[in-house]
Each structure stands twice: as structure tokens, then as C-alpha cells.
């Protein structure tokens, strides 16, 4: 991941509704969700949801698959992990980092 991709992903997630959508897709896992299910779960208008899904897809955070008449949205875990890796790339000044499980922070920081 490069800086431009990281900024795009972070910008997409820097909106309450998009963050909620992305988290719902993460919870759904590899099966993903249709826009109607997402709209019902999050109590959001479908046209508003469509806009937010488009922004998340443009940032590479979600994938879209057509199954018959339905679109299935899924969190792109590889892209999400790439973003996390980019953000923590120089943790501990580039040395080996042993994360503290209780705080999820770098143990040597």
C-alpha cells in the first residue's frame, strides 16, 4: 500500500455512516451483505447507503459481486490489512514489534 491509497482509505472511513457500514461488513465476514440487508441493519436510507458503499468501493475497502439480481458487498480484508500494515510499518523504529495483547499497543512503546 502506498500513501495515496492509505489516505483514500482513511478518508473513506472518516465518516460515521461509512465506518458503520464497513464494520457491519467486517462482522458479516466472507458471506457479505446485500444493500437491503445493510440498510435494514443500519436503519439508513438505501440511496444514502448506495453513496457510502460507492465511496468505500472507490477506496478499495469493499468488493462487489453480482449474484443473480443481488449485489453482495464484502469487506476487502486484504486491503484492510494492507492499511493496518502501512500504518504500523515503522512501529518500534522498524524493529521487531511484540504487541501487547491486552492493550493492542506496541509492548516496547
Automatic annotation (TrEMBL):
Classification via SMART domains: HTH_ARSR
Keyword presence, Transcription: yes
Keywords: DNA-binding, Transcription, Transcription regulation
PANTHER family xref list: ARSENICAL RESISTANCE OPERON REPRESSOR ARSR-RELATED
Stored CDD domains: HTH_ARSR
Protein name stated in the entry: ArsR family transcriptional regulator
InterPro entries (alphabetical): ArsR-like_HTH, HTH_ArsR_DNA-bd_dom, Metal_resp_trans_reg, WH-like_DNA-bd_sf, WH_DNA-bd_sf
UniProt-listed Gene3D superfamilies: Winged helix-like DNA-binding domain superfamily/Winged helix DNA-binding domain
A GO molecular-function annotation: DNA binding
Domain HTH arsR-type: 1-95
